[in-house]
Amino acid sequence: MKNTCLFIVFTLISFAVNAQQILISNNAKVSFFSSTVMEDIEGKSATGGSVIDTKSGNIIFKVKNTSFQFKKKLMQEHFNENYMESEKYPVSEFKGTIKEPINLAADGTYKVTIEGNLNIHGISKAYKTQADLVVSKGTLNASAVFKVKIADHNIEIPKLVFKNIAESVEVRIQATYLAKK
Asked: Where's the Lipid/polyisoprenoid-binding YceI-like domain (predicted)?
């Protein structure tokens, strides 16, 4: 919780803009899913933090790697110790831009394009994806689904379990943003 608060404070300082255009999400849901013939693996976190500057379209999203929960305790241990090396790379982060303008005064559902860099396991890679934004009475709900290729982030899978983990995992994001007060 302390890290999430610090993240938000630093992010707000870096935007250096007024409060009406800043939206914050403190409990964003992030999950990833890997499916193979051998096994399905899913990790879920509900502690992601994100900030959007509605004027510039800038978006920052962070999640602690150790916050992901798995059905099997052993999967969680392997995820943090062997694959993500969470002690060395404690967070995954996205910094990018929402390409279309956000109008909080007009309720509705909007499809937008988001471009930026996703840093996982210490490796940053450019991504572009579609997201759904639902504006209702000044609240913004965002959702996105995209694929992440494990090899692109230098995550090594031991040959012994290579058939258990897909080459690409599906990442799902859901966040509710409220205006900074």
From this structure: 27-176
Q: How far apart are CA 63 and CA 46, in angstroms?
A: 9
Q: What does the pLDDT average to over 18-37?
A: 86
User: What tens digit of pLDDT does each residue of 77-98 get?
Assistant: 989 998 899 999 999 999 999 9
- pTM to 2 decimal places: 0.83
Burial class (CB in 10 A: 0-12, 13-18, 19+), 177: buried
In a domain, 17, yes or no: no
Segment holding 181, helix H or strand E: none
The DSSP element (H or E) to which 179 belongs, if any, is strand 168-179
Looking at the structure of the chain, the number of domains it has is 1
Q: Which of 11, 179, 5 is nearest to 95 (CA)?
A: 11
Instruction: Say if 5 falls within a structural domain.
Output: no
Mean pLDDT for the chain overall:
88
141: CATH: 2.40.128.110
User: CA-to-CA distance for 118 and 107, rounded, in angstroms?
Assistant: 29
Does position 177 have pLDDT exceeding 70, yes or no?
A: yes
From the list 104, 113, 106, the residue with the least C-alpha distance to 179 is 104
